[in-house]
User: Which sequence fits this backbone?
C-alpha cells in the first residue's frame, strides 16, 4: 500500500462541523507541522442563513485559520445525506487521493441524520478504499487509525485532547462563518437575534458560549483549561501506566 500523504483528514457533514468539534486538535497538529485536511460532505445549503458562495468563502478562510493544507466539499444534498454505495465511493476516492494516516469522523451517537450518515459513510469509505478489486480510480489505500469526534450526544469518551493553547484560534476559525454566527462578539450576535433572525442554538446562548462551556467542562475532567473529546472503538495500548497523565486522586 502507498505511503500516507496527509497526516490527518477530518470528515464532517456540514461546513463548520469540523471546526466546532475538532478545531483545537487540527490547529495543534498543524502547529506541529503535521499535514491536515478537511472533507465536508455538504455545503450546508439548508441552513437558515448565508448562501453557497458565502459559505464556501467562509470555509476557505476557516481552513486557513486551522492551518489546513487541503479542503474539499463533495456537495452532497444537505439534510438528505444518504447512506449508499455511490456516496461511500465519493469519499473513498478522496481517501485514495489524499492518503491520510488518520481520519477523524463524527461519533456514532448523533441527533442530526447527516452526522450519523457521515459516521457510517466515512467508516465504510476507509474500508472500501483499501479494496484492490473495487471499481475506483487510484491506488488501494486504508488509513491506519480512525478516531471519532464527540458532538453533543455521547457522554463517554476514550480520551481527551488538551487544547488550552489552541482554544482562542479555534474560536477564530468558527467565527470565520460570519453568515452563520455573526461577528465573534456577543453584541453582534444578540443584535442578529433581535433583528428577528432565528437562534439556531439554545435560547440565550451563542455558539461561542456553547464552545466555551463545553471545551472548558471537558478540560476540567482532565485538569486542563480546555479540551476536546474523542472516542475510539479499539483499546489504547500503553507501555508504562505510571506515565499516564491525569491524576486519579
Ligand atoms: Zn452539522
Assistant:
Amino acid at each position: 500500500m502507498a505511503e500516507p500523504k496527509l497526516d490527518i483528514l477530518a470528515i464532517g457533514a456540514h461546513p463548520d462541523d469540523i471546526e466546532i468539534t475538532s478545531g483545537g486538535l487540527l490547529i495543534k497538529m498543524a502547529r506541529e507541522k503535521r499535514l491536515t485536511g478537511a472533507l465536508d460532505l455538504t455545503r450546508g445549503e439548508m441552513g437558515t442563513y448565508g448562501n453557497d458562495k458565502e459559505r464556501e468563502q467562509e470555509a476557505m478562510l476557516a481552513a486557513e485559520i486551522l492551518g489546513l493544507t487541503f479542503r474539499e466539499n463533495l456537495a452532497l444534498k444537505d439534510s438528505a445525506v444518504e447512506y449508499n454505495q455511490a456516496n461511500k465511493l465519493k469519499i473513498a476516492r478522496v481517501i485514495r487521493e489524499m492518503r491520510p494516516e488518520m481520519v477523524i469522523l463524527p461519533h456514532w451517537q448523533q441527533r442530526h441524520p447527516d452526522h450519523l450518515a457521515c459516521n457510517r459513510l466515512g467508516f465504510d469509505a476507509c474500508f472500501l478504499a483499501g479494496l484492490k478489486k473495487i471499481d475506483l480510480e487510484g491506488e488501494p489505500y486504508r488509513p491506519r487509525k480512525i478516531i471519532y469526534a464527540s458532538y453533543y450526544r455521547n457522554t463517554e469518551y476514550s480520551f481527551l485532547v488538551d487544547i488550552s493553547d489552541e482554544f482562542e484560534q479555534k474560536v477564530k476559525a468558527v467565527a470565520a462563518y460570519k453568515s452563520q454566527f455573526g461577528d465573534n462578539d456577543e453584541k453582534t450576535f444578540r443584535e442578529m437575534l433581535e433583528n428577528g433572525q432565528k437562534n439556531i442554538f439554545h435560547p440565550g446562548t451563542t455558539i461561542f458560549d456553547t464552545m466555551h462551556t463545553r471545551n472548558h467542562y471537558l478540560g476540567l475532567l482532565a485538569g486542563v483549561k480546555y479540551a476536546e473529546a474523542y472516542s475510539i472503538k479499539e483499546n489504547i495500548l500503553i507501555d508504562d501506566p505510571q506515565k499516564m497523565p491525569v491524576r486519579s486522586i
